[in-house]
Design brief:
- This protein has 154 residues and is α+β, with helices and mostly antiparallel strands.
- It folds into two domains: 76 residues, Ubiquitin-like (UB roll); 67 residues, DNA polymerase, domain 1 (Orthogonal Bundle), CATH 1.10.150.120.
- 32% of the residues lie in helices and 15% in strands.
- The chain is built from five helices and five strands.
- It has a five-stranded mixed sheet, covered by helices on one side.
- A hairpin with a 2-residue loop joins strand 3 and strand 4.
């Protein structure tokens, strides 16, 4: 099935098998492998991307559902070769250990900060509820997200 979508700001027309997930389309058709496949059941959040600004588990969304919509992946966070503030903060706060869950955490945090520019610690923790991280214990990622929020002007 042919779809037209915008991925990381680029308008694309793609031929997508109707049974492929959005994660499959991103990884196999577009070679955007920053979107990780963990459980493929919507439980871990490693595959989180933004679909029209909302965080979704791309393993549960059919690729054809992206027709006419905007998709943002972790690769879209880099602008002009520079890491985003969230990416930099994750590194600075040592919030990255194995790194497998990091793209999904960052995409969930991006959506959270777009909705709530100055979240409380509790709001950050709630915003990450759909993301499983086995290595960090969440404290360092939460610190990183809060540090970015403190620097925001809004």
């Amino acid at each position: 099935m042919e779809i037209t979508t915008t991925v990381n700001g680029n308008s694309l027309t793609l031929d997508v098998p109707p049974n492929w997930s959005l994660a499959d389309v991103l990884r196999q058709k577009l070679s955007l492998t920053g979107t990780k496949l963990g459980c493929e059941a919507g439980e871990c959040g490693a595959c989180t991307v933004l679909l029209d600004g909302e965080p979704v588990n791309s393993c549960l969304v059919l690729g054809v559902e992206a027709d006419g919509k905007s998709v943002e992946t972790i690769e879209g966070q880099i602008q002009d070769g520079e890491l985003s503030a969230l990416q930099e903060a994750m590194v600075e706060k040592s919030a990255v250990q194995c790194g497998f869950c990091t793209p999904g955490l960052i995409m969930s945090a991006t959506a959270l900060l777009a909705e709530i520019p100055k979240p409380t610690e509790q709001q950050v923790r709630e915003g990450l509820e759909g993301n499983i991280c086995r290595c960090t214990g969440y404290n360092k990622p939460v610190e990183a997200i809060l540090s970015v929020a403190r620097k925001k002007k809004k």
